[in-house]
Every structure is written in C-alpha cells, then in structure tokens.
Amino acid sequence: MYAKNTWEKYKDNLNEVMEYNEGYKDYISKNKTERACVKDSIRLAKEKGFKPLDSFETLKPGDKVYVNNRDKNIALFVIGNKPLTEGMRILGAHIDSPRMDLKQNPLYESEGFVLADTHYYGGVKKYQWVTIPLSLYGVVAKKDGTVVDVVIGEDDNDPVVGISDLLIHLAAEQLDKKAAKVIEGENLDVTLGNMPLVGEEKDAVKANILKLLKDKYDIEEEDFVSAEIEVVPSGKARDYGLDRSMIAGYGHDDRVCAYTSLTAILDMDVCDYTCCTILVDKEEIGSVGATQSLFFENTIGEMLVKMGIDSFVQTRLTLSRSKMLSSDVSAGVDPLFVSVNDKKNAAYLGNGIVFNKYTGARGKSGSNDASAEYVARIRAVMDESNIHYQTAELGKVDLGGGGTIAYILGNYNMDVIDAGIAVLNMHAPMEVVSKVDVYETYQAYKAFLKNA
Prior knowledge:
Blueprint: H1 14-30, H2 34-47, E1 51-52, E2 64-69, E3 73-78, E4 88-94, E5 99-110, E6 113-121, E7 134-141, E8 147-152, H3 179-182, E9 190-193, H4 204-217, E10 227-233, E11 238-240, E12 246-249, H5 252-266, E13 274-280, H6 295-305, H7 312-320, E14 323-326, E15 330-331, E16 353-356, E17 360-361, H8 372-384, E18 389-391, E19 401-402, H9 406-410, E20 415-420, E21 422-423, E22 431-434, H10 435-451
Parallel strand pairs: 1-2, 4-13, 4-14, 14-20, 15-21, 16-18
Antiparallel strand pairs: 2-3, 3-13, 5-6, 5-10, 6-9, 7-8, 7-10, 11-12, 12-22, 16-20, 17-19
Helix pairs in contact: 1-10, 5-10, 6-7
C-alpha cells in the first residue's frame, strides 16, 4: 500500500512491533563498530543453523551459509531450489557509521591533560560531537600477531571520554564563525586523562595513561600504529517520544537496515531463488578499499564451484540475473526543517519502507537510478504482501544529496533499487527512527526475498 500511515495497520498487533524493536535496540546498543556487527551477526546466524562456506564440500537447496571477510563484511545465503545461475535475491546494507578514528600516533600531553588526535570518518557536523560522552571501540594488532579488543565507556563502571568546547563566556569570536568552522577537524581531540603518574617529571599524565593501557590491555604506545580505535557516542539506544513510538540511538545509518536485512534472511526458509544478505563497511567514505573489492564476486564464484560450475562467465551472469534491494536509510521529513524537502517526494516517519529510485547529487551524480520496469515489479511485490511503502528523494534538487552501495552491484548489470528506513538527525551522534518503519521494513525485506 503506497504512502499510508503504518501504525494503523498494526493497531491490533503492537506487541509484534515493540518486541521486534527490542531486539534491534539491543543489537545497535552493543554493536557500534563494523567488527562488532560482524561478530554478533555470526552469533545470531549460527543460532539459526548457518555454517561457514568453507565447511561445505557441496551446496544444495536449503543450505544456510555465511562468509566472513576480514571481520568487517559478512555475506549470508539460503540456497534456493532454482540453480544459482538463475540469479539471487539480495539485500545489501552497510555497517559503518560516521565517527572519529584515533590517528596512528594519537597521544600527546598539553596543559596538564593527555589527549588523543582523531580524524573524523564520514560526513559529520563537527560541532555535534563535542561535550557528549564518548566511548572507545576497536582493536590493537600487535607485532606478535595477537589482536587485542578494546571497549572503554560502555559498561556502567567504565569511564567515558569526550571532546571539550569553549565556554560561552569566552566564545564571542567562536560564535562569529560559520557552523562548518566553529569546531575544526584538528580540534576533535579526545580528552583521556588529567592525573600524573607519581615519580614522573616529563609527560607524567601521558605516562599514567600508558600505564593504565599496559596494565589492562598489555599494549604499548607504538602499538597504536597498527590499531583501529573508533570514537563513538556512549550509551544505549533508548525509546524516543512519550508514546515510545521511536528509537533514539547512534548508528541507525545504516545498522537499522543491516539488522532488518540480517533478521529477514535468518528467518527465511528455502525459496525458489537463493537469498542473500550482505553487510559491508566503508560506505560512509565512498565504498573503497580491500573489503569493497571483489569479495562478493569471488564468493559467488566459490559457491558455483561447490555446485560443480567453475566458470568466470557464469559467475558474472549469475550476478547480472540477480535482483537487489540496496538497504540504506533515507532522510525523514523533520517538522523543524520542512523547507529542504519536496514534500511530494519525501520520506515520512511512520509511513513504512522508503524506496529511492535514485540518490546522488547535482543531477543524480553518483546514483544508480533504477529502471521503471524494476520499480514496477517492486511495487507489485509490496502490494501482494500488503506492505506499506513510500517513495522519496534525498531533499530538494541542488540542496544536497548522497550515495549508497547500489551503483556497485548495478555495475554487474543487476536490477538494484535503494530501499530503507526514514531517519531524523542522520549522521548525528543521536539519530531517530520510527519503530513501525523498522518492523515494516523487516516484513518488506522478507517479501522481497521470497517473491521478487
């Protein structure tokens, strides 16, 4: 059903909506990095009977398979009744979110404080990230091959860190700056401590922080050179609004579509076509790097080999015969900033899953732009399954724009359209989604996998 308020649909089944969202809140609260999402997704997949691809000698209909790529990507498959070469039904989402990353040589002492240099990751309004509690997540890879997991700031007994801002009493010159310059990127430095190590005369506060890290994690300062430490907002996702209709939390973009895509395939039985969910990293910085390379294509080739087909051509044809929903969020209409939208072509919280025929910016640059025929097929699938959906663009023409992973799979001559959940405060430390949209998107993804 096109552009209908979805709360009415579930007025007699609100418990379904709320219960599903409790699972999502738990997932997003404890998985604030790509590595954490992959690790927890594997745990959930194993509980549903999924096994690593390399544990199969052959593949047959009904097999449940997953592939972990560098602990930052995961692809999950339910093998269908039709030959794989006839194509797949694919859900693809990204599990990275805007944040700060510690630099390779981050620590320094200044004015009695020890701080850590950062480089922001993805598109952010830098002023939103100061004076809020922050956590440190990630890994430190040591020269001996061991990898140390680091999580500081999430346990109730943990300290948090943060980025300071200039007090209002001394901010006259700062407030004259444009918003993009109020906080400079090089000033997004995280405060780690203020207590000196007894007996140290030079950089005593830094020495104390290094001692704490050595005692807890057995890491040295030079180990930061081979570390991936992300700075993210602290705390759990919370119900938002007096009516508990929404969820406020960090990383809805795009983990809300990742979770709905993940649970859709975990709850899927064998279908005609092989079903797939792929969760990837680095979307927020342009979908680049090793984990955005030929991983997916190689995985399909390996699966075909286990089915007795060793052919580069058949691998490419399998991809070209597939259909995909690029599961990514859309900009919800904010009542305080309505003017940035073309209201006839905008996404509204509570109206169900959002389809973006195209994204991009300045004349659709960087967009996939789905074909009219494919949009028509998606409409039919949604209507046949009584799914509430809406269509949207990312704001008014020339006011902005953005991209997704849709074009990457579209390059295989695959039918792809962007499909996800409307979000308020996108890329902020606290984003907001509607619970009913989360649940309806989960239902839409299952309908696509089964019927598209």
